[in-house]
Structure to design on (112 residues):
C-alpha cells in the first residue's frame, strides 16, 4: 500500500501492470488514441455546429503526429484539399459529410 502514497518510478513500474489487469485497462497505441481524439473532436464539431474548416488543421495534425493511421486518412487530408480548393462552401459540405461518416463508422465499430 505504501506504493500508492507518493510512489517512485520504480514502484509505479512494478504495480502498474497488475493494477491495469485488475481494472481491465490496457495501453493504447498512438493510432488508437488519435482515433479516439479525432472522434471526440468530430462529435464536438457536429454537436456544436462549428465550422469544420476551422478545425481541419487540428485533425490533420493528430493524423500526422500519430504516423498517418489509415482510419484518419480521410479527415487528415481534408485540410490540404480545402487549401487546394480555396476553402469554398463545397469543401465545407465535403468536410461535414466526412465528419458524419467518420462518427458513424466509429460508433458502429465501438458499439456506441
Amino acid at each position: 500500500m505504501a506504493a500508492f502514497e507518493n510512489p517512485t518510478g520504480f514502484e509505479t513500474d512494478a504495480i502498474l501492470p497488475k493494477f491495469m489487469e485488475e481494472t481491465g485497462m490496457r495501453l493504447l497505441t498512438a493510432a488508437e488514441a488519435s482515433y479516439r481524439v479525432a472522434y471526440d473532436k468530430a462529435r464536438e464539431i457536429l454537436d456544436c455546429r462549428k465550422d469544420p474548416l476551422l478545425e481541419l488543421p487540428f485533425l490533420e495534425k493528430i493524423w500526422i503526429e500519430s504516423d498517418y493511421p489509415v482510419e484518419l486518412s480521410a479527415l487528415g487530408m481534408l485540410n490540404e484539399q480545402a487549401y487546394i480548393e480555396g476553402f469554398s462552401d463545397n469543401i465545407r459540405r465535403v468536410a461535414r459529410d466526412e465528419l458524419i461518416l467518420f462518427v458513424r463508422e466509429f460508433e458502429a465499430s465501438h458499439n456506441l
